[in-house]
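step=encode ok
step=design start
structure_in=
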């Protein structure tokens, strides 16, 4: 969890945004960039990871919250999602859903 949180904070700092800035398009892009590290550019997975591009914001929000709560199949996502607040999850879900 500490590594995921550190990566998120580093991504936000790299954009020049305050860590608490969660409503700007740049913050959404910085947070979503973490997803693209595993799920492929713009969420179009080139391999074994599931693609997330084309998923609705409702679906993505639900999955991230379930991972955070430990209610979904255990993967690294259970650890990564714990680093996100509800506001950040909403921002990530809306950003990725708007990519298709």
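sequence_out=
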């Amino acid at each position: 969890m500490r590594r995921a949180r550190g990566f998120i904070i580093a991504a936000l700092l790299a954009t020049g945004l305050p860590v608490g800035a969660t409503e700007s398009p740049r913050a959404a892009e910085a947070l979503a960039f973490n997803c693209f590290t595993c799920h492929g550019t713009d969420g179009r997975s080139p391999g074994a990871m599931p693609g997330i591009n084309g998923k609705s914001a409702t679906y993505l929000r639900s999955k991230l919250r379930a991972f955070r709560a430990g209610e979904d199949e255990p993967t690294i996502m259970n650890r990564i999602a714990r680093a996100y607040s509800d506001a950040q999850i909403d921002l990530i879900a809306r950003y990725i859903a708007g990519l298709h």
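step=design ok
step=annotate ok -> The helical segments are 2-14, 25-39, 57-69, 76-81, 86-97.
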